[in-house]
């Protein structure tokens, strides 16, 4: 900062800093431009946080240098007039400049039009004449004597001083507690340090929030930089926060879903109208349920094709190869599920588990005791997932496996899929039909250009290896701007009655296009699931 100063006709000012250079000045009126410095022993800042703020990152840029020349006396000292305290007999006025503590001083300038007759340093017991006031000296207080009248206001308005000493000891305080000193260092920046204190800011903010009064919506966090000497201090907080919106449904703070079987989950999270200015980063959900050890895989899919259906009737059995990617998720197989419906009148279907032939991957001999309990199949318009259970668990180590579906009575229709055995989430099954005499032959395939390759739609019921569990629930969140799903966002858990926390973090934050967010997912087992304490974490765009 530059200002214009006009010197008086005295000769007290000997040198002054002119844009970093020293010039010898002469006695007499002179006009020149000079840099105004600044100095303090402490600077502080108050950061205001809403009660729902989450501190993502908190650092402070700390800069401390020697003030240099032309620091206004009013900024660094107490100034008072003591007319009766003159040391010289002909002195008319005396002004005391009190720095409050021992301070290194240079070029003490009382201001325009004032020329001291004497400059005295306080020794602790009396005043001592300073023979060379323009040079560097150290004193707690300085007494300036003037032959003419001098007022406190004159010195306060125009007086300056150079403070050449750099601070040796710095302290950074958070809410009155020291959290850093310059002896601890940090990331170096020009003339200072960048200090990361994210964890301490989080802890302090949490304490302030817990002490907030009813009706209070914000808390103030005070940060302060202290120096052992007058210095040019700068403290710049750089605190990055997110906000939290607790979701409330029209009928309360929770949402319950009762799934009879495995299957998809979809929950719309209502948002306020101002959410159009949000940038959503994360959704936190607590899910609670009481579920057993059995799981069904895949929990969703495969997708059915409308191009063809598989017809089953008495004496015409069908065989499906259990997809290895699904089998490998289990330790024990307890049964299978197939999408099936009776055509016209009810029917019945059962079956058995088979191994593979020694010389090929074709269906082999039936596995002893692995007979699927027959179930009734109701008539209807569309196939429904139907469970065929084994009397006891089948160790997957005995695989690979085929399942043979055997119709007891009625005409049944089984859905097919275009998903092949290599599908990422819901692979289809190779299909054979039983030949007279006991052999089998692959399902007739039509030209892909006309119909597409066909596979059996099948799910497996079983229990996973305890060392590689299958989540009972998976959740994802549709991207608030595009509505797309990112598989990397999906999280899974097996909720208990006490609840399990699920954190869904978007890879790229975005503003909601509507006043809701959509949670989607699936359960790998039937049961009642309750979702509550749902928090949408966001940043305000403005």
Structure description:
This protein is mostly beta strands and 542 residues long. The protein folds into four domains: 40-66 and 168-241, Jelly Rolls; 69-163, Beta Barrel (Elongation Factor Tu (Ef-tu), domain 3); 247-291 and 472-540, Jelly Rolls, CATH 2.60.120.380; 295-463, Jelly Rolls. Helices cover 5% and strands 54% of the residues. The chain has four helices and 39 strands. The longest helix is centred in the middle third of the chain and has 13 residues, at 198-210.
Question: What does this entry show, briefly?
Answer:
With 542 residues, the protein is mainly beta.
Tag the structure with descriptive keywords.
single chain, 542 residues, mainly beta, Jelly Rolls, Elongation Factor Tu (Ef-tu), domain 3, 4 domains, eleven-stranded antiparallel β-sheet, seven-stranded antiparallel β-sheet, 39 strands, rod-shaped, disordered N terminus
